[in-house]
């Protein structure tokens, strides 16, 4: 069971109440595809991913970014059982999507950078640590059903 | 691999940040200590609390070394030769920690530059810091 301090719980709720899912989701996913281009391997059907400009304006990337961030909301609402919350998603990513679980960390890092850029000085070292702990738990839960 | 455009971008960013090297460096270190407590073990001989003189001076040293490397990325091995020796034979910091500091440096840049830390700048900086870390670890074995 993950132990969350009051500060960590409050911080996670606060961050997710402040960010605009429709902006942050697409920004994080497109940043991942730009900074770590090998992640594009999972998005062959998305059309033009030729350069940063194409990726940033690709409507399928934007739509999928929103899907991913909405998926994160489940964990925000169930912080005490993220493992169970993501059991099915974990199976999906392993059995159907065949995503290398190392990629989860890459997307998590890009999301951290996007949120940091949005929040500026408010994203201080303690807030960052709480956010990273949350994402680490999410990533670990998504890895769990791989075999 | 860094394109000419990326090298220029990197050089310009670090030129802009050199005057506030202390703040950038201290911020990145604090983030690393908060998110990755194991990294504190390398600093048991210093006072690394927020606002401490050690934190500022150490942060400054690191950022200025990175900025120096950014001036001519093709010469990284030459520029970093003394630091390579220092890290390999004296400091002996496990190289996995370089990734942790690099990540925190990127977060610091994002907070500082906001929208200005574009995906292109992020990609270029990530590549540069990885190359920097790799060169730093070259004399380890």
The largest chain-to-chain contact, stated as pair and per-chain residue counts, equals: A-B, 25 and 22 residues
Task: Give the CATH level 1 class of chain A.
Answer: Mainly Alpha
* Uncertain ranges of chain B: none
CATH superfamily of chain A: Globins
What share of residues of chain B is helical? over 70%
Task: Please name the fourth-level CATH homologous superfamily of chain B.
Answer: Globins
> Secondary-structure element order of chain B, as H and E?
HHHHHHH
Number of distinct helices of chain B:
7
Proportion of residues in extended strands of chain A = under 5%
Query: What characterizes the major β-sheet of chain B?
Result: none
Rounded to the nearest angstrom, the distance between the terminal CA atoms of chain B is 24 Å
**CATH fold descriptor of chain A:** Globin-like
The strand count of chain A comes to 0
- Ranges of chain A where pLDDT stays below 50 over 5 or more residues in a row are none
CATH topology of chain B: Globin-like
Family (chain B): Belongs to the globin family.
Keywords (chain B): Heme, Iron, Metal-binding, Oxygen transport, Transport
Domain Globin (chain B): 1-141
GO molecular function (chain B): haptoglobin binding; heme binding; metal ion binding; organic acid binding; oxygen binding; oxygen carrier activity; peroxidase activity
Describe the structure.
Chain A has helices at 6-18, 21-35, 52-56, 59-77, 82-85, 87-96, 102-119, 125-143. Chain A is mostly helical and 147 residues long. The model of chain A has no long low-confidence stretch (mean pLDDT 95). With 141 residues, chain B is an all-alpha fold. Chain B has one domain (4-140): Orthogonal Bundle (Globin-like). The longest helix of chain B is centred in the middle third of the chain and has 19 residues, at 53-71. The A-B interface holds A 30-31, 34-35, 52, 55-56, 109-110, 112-114, 116-121, 123, 125-126, 128-129, 132-133 and B 27, 30-31, 33-35, 103-104, 106-107, 110-115, 117, 119-120, 122-123, 126.
């Amino acid at each position: 069971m993950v132990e969350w301090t009051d500060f960590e719980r409050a911080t996670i709720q606060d961050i997710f109440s402040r960010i605009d899912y429709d902006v942050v989701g697409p920004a994080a996913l497109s940043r991942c595809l730009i900074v770590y281009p090998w992640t594009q391997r999972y998005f062959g059907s998305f059309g033009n991913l030729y350069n940063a400009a194409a990726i940033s304006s690709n409507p399928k990337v934007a739509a999928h970014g929103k899907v991913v961030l909405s998926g994160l909301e489940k964990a925000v609402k169930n912080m005490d059982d993220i493992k169970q919350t993501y059991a099915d998603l974990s199976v999906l990513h392993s059995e159907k999507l065949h995503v290398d679980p190392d990629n989860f960390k890459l997307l998590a890092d890009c999301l951290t950078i996007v949120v940091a850029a949005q929040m500026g000085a408010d994203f201080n070292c303690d807030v960052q640590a709480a956010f990273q702990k949350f994402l680490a738990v999410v990533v670990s839960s998504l890895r769990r059903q791989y075999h | 691999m860094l394109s000419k455009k990326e090298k220029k971008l990197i050089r310009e960013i670090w030129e802009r940040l050199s005057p506030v090297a202390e703040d950038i460096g201290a911020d990145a270190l604090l983030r690393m200590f908060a998110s990755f407590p194991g990294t504190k073990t390398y600093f048991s001989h210093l006072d690394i609390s927020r606002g401490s003189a050690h934190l500022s001076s150490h942060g400054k040293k690191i950022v200025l070394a990175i900025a120096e490397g950014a001036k001519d990325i093709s010469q990284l091995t030459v520029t970093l030769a003394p630091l390579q020796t220092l890290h390999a034979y004296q400091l002996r910091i496990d190289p996995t920690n370089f990734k942790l500091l690099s990540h925190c440096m990127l977060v610091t840049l994002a907070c500082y530059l906001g929208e200005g830390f574009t995906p292109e700048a992020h990609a270029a900086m990530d590549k540069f810091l990885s190359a920097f870390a790799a060169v730093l670890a070259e004399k380890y074995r």
